[in-house]
Amino acid sequence: MEMLEKAGHLIGIVVGIVSGIAAICGLIYAFAKWLQKQNQQSDEIARLRQMHENDKQIIEKELCVITDALFAVLDGLIQKGCNGNVSKAYKKMQDHINKSAHDQ
Asked: What pTM, to 2 d.p., does this model score?
């Protein structure tokens, strides 16, 4: 009987040790998965930032073309004698562009 008690006690100790090791392995695995997810998110953020920069450059180029076209239209209207609000808009736009250029 005493032998069975010792065997049961030994089995209990082994089960406790195995459970502890399994719990530690589970924590290590969970931490590794979390790190992997963080790395994936960092890569995704870097990719999105690059896309954002590319989009900004495209938009800036488009705005430059639109601004040039608008200046041409306003200038043409002024040459045709449409003064007043057209001249005010032209001057206001020119002042804004000059101010923006000097602020950069």
From this structure: 0.59
